[in-house]
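User: Some background: our group keeps a shared notebook of sequences we're curious about, and every so often someone picks one and asks for a predicted structure to add to the entry. Today it's my turn. The entry only has the sequence so far, pasted here. Could you supply the structure so I can complete it?
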Amino acid sequence: MLKNDLKTALHDTEILTKALGFPPFELYLLGGSGGILAGYLTRATRDFDIVDLDYGSSIGRVLKPLEPYDMIDLDLAVVPPSFKDRAVLLPDFDFLRIYVLSREDIIVSKLGRLNERDFDDIKIILPQADLHCIVDLINEVLAGKLLPIAKKTFINNAITVMEACDVQDIVQQLKKLRQGA
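Assistant: Of course. Here's the predicted structure to add to the notebook entry:
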């Protein structure tokens, strides 16, 4: 889906939410769809990545227009706990409050899995991101409840990306973090 397709699906979700009598709620988007909607990326994507805010099981009824979507479990994913502080409210919606995670939060979230598409997205987003904020968010994630093996993979992925993007001062900071992780 392209940006207009993503917006249409979100507007359809608003319409369905109202029609079924659901109260307004918040959605926090990340991944490719979030990056596209916020203007960080210009590619197409097949799905929505939504931060799971412990929605009730009935929420699936109103999220049908967003299929396929992934609910991102904050206990399992690499999303900084303070993501809401930096999220950007999308202005095109009048009933639902739809946010996109910041550039920095999306970059950090992609470091957990770091497939080829994630790596490509990070290289596009990174030049406009606050590198020091990214280091702070990596610290925040490392201080959280990730399993030791996940922490190791996460910090190694972060170092790999920063080395590939030739951000040497950040690489040195991350290597110090790895020693403490």
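Suggested note for the entry: The longest strand covers residues 26-30. The two ends are 38 Å apart (CA to CA).
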